[in-house]
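Hey, I'm writing a tutorial for new members on how sequence and structure tokens pair up, and I'd like a real worked example in the thread rather than a made-up one. If someone can provide the structure for the chain below, I'll link this post from the tutorial.
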Amino acid sequence: MITLRAFSTPAEAALAKSLLDDHDILCSLADENSYLYGGAPLAMPVRLLVTEDQAEEAARILKHPPDGLSAGSAARPETTAISVPSADNQEAERKNSPWEFLLIALLVSVPGILLLAQKQDLILFASTYRLARGDFTVISPTNAHWMGAGVIGVALFLVFLFFYVRRDIATDAETRAER
């Protein structure tokens, strides 16, 4: 057997092997578990091995894969292709989701709501020693309400920022798709 091609990922190699298997070409994968050894996928790619007498036909099939049914599968019923997003697209989509803004807005809004609901003086930095001496900081309900309104304003700004960034990402993706 000879090496027909080398692939950087086991998934690409498995797809090529599957295509050749559909055409009844004897092939196998070498070093397909090399990704288990840390940086080995870059140093040791997955190799697609074919028999010497079928090498030319295999190279032709991999260079120009058929669109319809394969030559050896005339008896098989026609199937429809299912579009599955690749891992790279899913990773890019995950990176382009500014959901963190919503999470931070939620975390900021809870103290803001609590400050708005404050009905009596708010004691800050109090300890039993300081309370006994009368040395503590008090925030009046009016000041607590103003602080709560400011914090809620920050949370609303973060929600606005989420939708703005999301729209900008969608516009950018449409622009890239048009090119």
